[in-house]
Amino acid sequence: MIHQAVQQLIETGIDPRQICYISVDAPLFNECGLDDFIELFESASGADLKSKQAFLFLDEIQYLRNWETQLKNLVDTKPNIRFVASGSAAAALRLKSLESGAGRFTEFLLPPLTFHEYLDLLEKNVLVKHNEETDWFETNDINNLNSEFMSYLNFGGYPEAIFSEAIRADPARFIKSDIVDKVLLRDLPGLYGIQDIQELNYLFTTLAFNTANEVSLEGLAEKSGVAKNTIKRYIDYLEAAFLIKVVHKISHNARRFQRATSFKVYLTNPSIRSALFSAIEIDDPAMGYLAETGIFSQWFHNTSDVLYYARWKDGEVDIVSLDHKQKPRWAVEVKWSDRCVDNLSDLKNVLNFCKWNKLSEIAVTTRTATVFKHVDQLRIKFIPTALYCYTVGHNLVNRLQQ
């Protein structure tokens, strides 16, 4: 994306000599500071950095010691230069930019690909068509769409992976070694005072294998032999590193718990699971959990909604959005099966939740079925999980662009 941004600047008429890209993690730059990069920029291209606008792109900036202080000073003293700094260590960038860049830095977080973006990049979005009346999408080939959805869940979170047969054949080499291990084991533990990397790695792989399952600090501590406070710190770290997302629960009447002892953890990118373990098949018993993870990964592009799950003694609803008054706005029940379409008794708890909280509509995802049904005053939209993900991803990304 940085390379594309450079190309776009050139196409809009910016002199290429006024644009510089530096990969900060190159060993050649180990002893360099940002002032050195400015000098290199000027000497290499003859750029005019005093009277003309220039652009300096700094990739993997977290490798530069005290980058945030240096960048703050340059933003103040070099008004003609626009700086773009990127890095895969999200937690480090966010922590340090908040400390030093208030009022100076604008932060953009790039989540993994949505299912819509995945199909669009592969030029396979012809599999779906937009229904303008409902603002949802439809398909005439749900089996082919589900096949692409499985590829998306296993490999599709990263653009490089979807275009490379070599990476798809060995996702552990790219996704695990280059992304998970780099962020998890090398770049960031020092920021959070984490000494035992093996403990952290064990916790992450446990959470990844059980993505979309409910867990508790007590249970994780008992299973691993690690203190609860340490587990809590590890989870905070993993969430700051954008590897997982913690989702909290509400009660049957949408009340948040003051002292919740359990919560759900989702991988931010479902394809991490296949990289750590193995690619999942369409009939795998864990598909329901991975489908739920896939749905949550679409919603990560939306920063305005805080999502919850509802759980009470006799039931659960997978996804609930609350309004500013803490009342349910909408809810989604995730199924990787068509059985519930003809067996509404499977949705007893979901229907009760809607009744208790006066919801007039709910979405229930299926494997292949698209059906509308009414139960009393409640409208149920049954929609294939793949179509639901595509619709959410498309609508969120396009509204962000408007």
Sheet of most strands: 7 strands, mixed
Number of helices: 17
Helix content: 40-55%
Radius of gyration of CA atoms, rounded to a whole number: 23 Å
Describe what this molecule looks like in 3D.
With 402 residues, this protein is an alpha/beta fold. It has 17 helices and 15 strands. The strands form 4 sheets. A 7-stranded mixed sheet has the order 8-10-11-12-13-15-14. It has a 3-stranded parallel sheet with strand order 1-2-3, sandwiched between helices. Strand 4 and strand 5 form a beta hairpin. Helix 11 crosses helix 12. The longest helix is centred in the middle third of the chain and has 17 residues, at 171-187. The two termini are 19 Å apart. 36% of the residues are buried. The mean pLDDT is 88.
